[in-house]
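hiii so um. not sure if this is the right channel but i have a protein structure encoded as tokens and i wanna go backwards to a sequence. like what aa goes where. can anyone help
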């Protein structure tokens, strides 16, 4: 049984994109992943596993890992963990990061020259502050196409049927995100039709779209 001072076990979670040289890991959802958690990366050939620590949760599907030993280090090269090799990440049950004791925190709050300030804010399941505008927050990931070595397609849809297809193009060290929806593809009336025709859709930058 776990308590409030522990993170529950999670995974193994399958990668939905190859690991990157800068520590970016992509999974179906990062909903229950938290910065500071320790995990183990494995694959069919990397059977001994690589210990990592979550440095940051970057989006609904991506997070960045660093060395499990040095939590201040930069992103760790995890490019050896690939889709073709059935890469996964597993988070065992573990204690949460220790907090400053309440009496010490109060000293820092109320001393003559306070060094910290207390603020309570509401956050969502990804740790983002509620009220900060994310135009894609209400979309759910439905499909991922990574058949190309350089292009990935993500198919997303809202509950009301509003669709969005994201094209991610990787050229060397450069990654470009482009977006398509019904406003720049008016003949694609449904998600199914749009995602089927994803390779021939018209794409643009996110700020150029309306109806999101």
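sure thing!! here u go:
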């Amino acid at each position: 049984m776990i308590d409030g001072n522990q993170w529950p076990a999670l995974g193994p979670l399958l990668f939905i994109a190859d690991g990157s040289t800068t520590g970016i890991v992509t999974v179906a959802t990062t909903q229950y992943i938290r910065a500071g958690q320790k995990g183990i990366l494995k694959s069919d050939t990397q059977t001994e596993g690589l210990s990592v620590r979550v440095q940051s949760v970057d989006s609904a599907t991506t997070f960045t890992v660093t060395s499990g030993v040095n939590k201040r280090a930069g992103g760790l090269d995890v490019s050896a963990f690939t889709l073709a090799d059935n890469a996964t990440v597993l988070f065992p049950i573990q204690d949460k990061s220790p907090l400053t004791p309440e009496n010490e925190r109060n000293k820092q709050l109320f001393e003559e020259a306070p060094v910290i300030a207390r603020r309570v804010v509401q956050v969502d399941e990804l740790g983002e502050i509620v009220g900060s505008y994310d135009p894609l927050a209400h979309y759910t990931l439905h499909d991922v196409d990574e058949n190309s070595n350089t292009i990935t397609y993500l198919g997303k849809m809202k509950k009301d049927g509003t669709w969005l297809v994201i094209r991610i193009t990787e050229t060397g060290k450069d990654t470009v995100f482009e977006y398509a929806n019904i406003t720049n593809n008016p003949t694609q009336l449904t998600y199914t039709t749009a995602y089927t025709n994803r390779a021939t859709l018209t794409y643009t930058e996110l700020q150029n779209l309306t109806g999101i």
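oh and DSSP finds two helices and twelve strands in the chain.
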